[in-house]
Amino acid sequence: MFRRRLRLSAAAGAGLLVVACAAFFGVQPTAAAPGDELTVDVSIDSFAPVAPKPGNPVVIKGRVTNTSSVTFDEPQALACIDRTRLASSADIADVSAEQDVAMRDRDSCANLTDGTAFQPFEQPLAPKASVDFTLTVPWEQWRISDRTGAYVVGVVFRGQPPDSDRITIGRARTLMPVISEPLPRKVKTALVIPLRHRPTQLGGSRFTNDSLAQSLSPTGSLGRLLALGKQHTVSWLVDPAMLDEVRQMAKGYEIVGAGGQTTKGTGQATAAAWLKEFEASRIRGNQVVLLPYGDPDVAGLLDSGEPLKKLVAQARTTTERYNLAPAFTNGLWLEGGAAASRYLAAASGGFAGATDQDLNLVSSSSWSADDRPALTKNPVYDVITPEGPNRSVRTVIADSALTSGGPDADSDDSPVQVRQRFAAETALIAAEGKGKNPATVVALPPRGWDVEGQATAALAGSLTLPWITATDVAQAVASTPRPPTTKAPAAPKSNGGLTGVQLDGIKQLDEAITTMQNLLANPDDLPQVMPQALLRSTSTSWRGFPDEARYFAAVELGSVNLQLNKVHLVNNPVNGERREIKVNLAGSKGTFPLTITNSTQWSVRVGIIVTSANRTDLRIEPQQSRILAAGQKWTPRINASAEQNGLIRANAQVITSSGRPVGDSEELLIQASQYGSVGWVLVGAACALLFGTSFVRIYRRIRTERRSPSHPTTEATTPDPLHPAPLDTSTDTTTDTTTGDPAPDELPEASLTEGVGSKDG
């Protein structure tokens, strides 16, 4: 540590000494120091002709913008060239972007100072100022051969910052294909143009914003892209979910703003016009490839496992059944890590309606430069997929070099740079041919590329180059009946584009929609907008719009829960507040009613389950599920039992036939009033005492009677009903002096001979 401090101190001292000497002798810092920190932006906006023939002059137009904080004196723009001839696509790929080299030291583009190859500017270039330039370069000033090939050319900016010499402080390069003679073969080129937009439809006629309508306008990106199909043969790569949204907009729609306020959408006519032109383009023969519904994040869903994994197959099945006549191609588009074999195998098959005619598109940029398949002959390969049921998957590999732009970084979406790169790549492919068999390539812009559609328009315009024959993807596939095999690209463990928060929102929405489908008596009654909204929530188009993605999923979840909450237990609120449902349970077993209502427009199959929250002795007999028509109620009797007295807190939950909870549960307060075990013992003892005492008394009486059978009292008090005792004749007969009848205690004499119980009688 002590030695390190000494070294640092020595270094600091040496630095101070150098500065002091410089100040004493008046020595200025070198020009490289300010030059390395200053920046001037140079852009090439026009390059003509696209592919000059030997002898043709070249005109380069562009703009210089001072993005630094200093003023440059004596500014000028100069043409430059790297005279190394590029003869193949591999040569173009090897051109260095020189990102790690200081601008003043970049020598890959030598300045042309002869004749008209430079342009001085009349005024110093102040900070934030811009100036246009036009450089006309005669052919001979390039000083290159007349052989067919491609060259790196460009424009550099030189100026003098304060207290420094003139330095090179800005540069822009591009590719210049040179065609010395007719090329030996044609290049059949299929340009695939994606037509996609992030979801905005919330359901029915409700939309989150008007961004889709703006994009559909003639000056919007989707409007400009669709217009390319009027003059060129292209293949449309379309998200069918977006088509559904445009169709709804054409019928009329409204925008849901903050607080739920709605305003009428303004793009109805625009959407109708766009749909009309889209249909006209299909009639003209432009192929339509439909993506999985919603264009889902395949890698993200598959990496997350169930239940989201199944949505990939659902999206593909939804597209396979999509109503779009005439016929369309069911397609899949993967790039980057999402093109790994585990994703390609899972997403290319395993869904209802999968056929060998389905199109699987993968960008060549998914492979590393060393492992990338050769695409100079054909774009179709059988990609090995050991993880899937099929050992290989027929795949169309789009050449990412055709849309990569110039050799400089951050130039892949410049229209001029893209056009020049496309022209150079295809010209070299055409020049490599020795026979008359054409080569076939597929150009597919990457996701998130060319937001405004201008670079894609430059690609479409390049289809008119002399060595290009425009075709579609279907013809490209048909031209390769026996494709070669290749390994799938390597990929990291996780390759999804959606965030964890987005995936959680999708899981909640999937759970709610699954519950809704289980609830319906006929699962096919599930509104189609619900699964469609679920697939829209998985779209890769949400990249860059996380807030809109979360809002969309939350609104759709609320819409499904609104329907689920229409099936619930009846609980009348008190003073606007929901209270517990109170029931009494008398005895060890009892019943109490609960009422379920169905306020939806569909028939549902429901059940009910009651669980205790504070006791373990509550027993509930299971209830059979019941179908409730729309608007109906059902009041089942809940059979319950409890072993102890007291208050039981329980929860009553409406469930589907498969046991999934529907909505929120209701709290029950069950008052259990019954005898305990001690009470039953006392009752039993009392009954035994009562009946035992009675039995003893009866037994004693019977025993006494048996011991004294002739006791007069007993005979008198217990007469025999069949043999009554004889009448007593010793008593005198008296007469009632009032009535003349015999007295009560007296009997007439005749009764002695007429008595029923007499021995003679």
What profile does the largest beta sheet have?
10 strands, mixed
Q: Termini separation (Å)?
A: 150 Å
Rounded Rg: 48 Å
Topology, number of strands: 33
The low-confidence runs, each spanning 5 or more residues with pLDDT under 50, are 1-36, 710-761
The tally of helices reads 20
Shape: elongated
Strand content: 15-25%
**Helical residue percent band:** 25-40%
Summarize model confidence as the mean pLDDT. 84
In terms of structural class, how would the helical and strand content be classed? alpha/beta
Task: Note down, in words, how this protein is organized.
- This protein is of the alpha/beta class and 761 residues long.
- The protein is built from 20 helices and 33 strands.
- Strands 9, 12, 15, 16, 17, 18, 19, 20, 21 and 22 form a ten-stranded mixed sheet that branches.
- Helix 7 (240-251) crosses helix 8 (268-283) and helix 15 packs parallel to helix 17 (546-564).
- The longest helix has 31 residues, at 677-707.
- The N and C termini lie far apart (150 Å).
- The model is unreliable at 1-36 and 710-761 (pLDDT under 50).
